[in-house]
Amino acid sequence: MNLIESRNRIDEIDKKIVELFEERMRVSGDVAEYKIKNGLAVLDKDRENEKLDMLEGLAHNGFNKDAIRELYEQIMSLSRKYQYTLMNRIMDDTLSIADFDQIDDMSFDEYNTVYYFGVKGSYTQAAMQEIFGSKVDGHHKRTFRGVMEAVCDGMADYGVLPIENSSTGGITANYDIILEYPIYILGEHVMEINQCLLGLPGAHLDEIRTVYSHPQGLMQCRTFLENHPEIKGVEFESTASAAKKVFEDGDPSQAAIAGITAADIYKLSVVAQNIQTEKDNSTRFIVIGTNKLYTKKADKISLCMELPHVSGSLYRMLSHFIFNGINMTLIESRPIPGRQWKYRFFIDIEGNLDDPEVKNALRGIHEECSYIKVLGNYASI
Question: Active-site residue among 285, 321, 323, 346?
Answer without folding.
Answer: 285
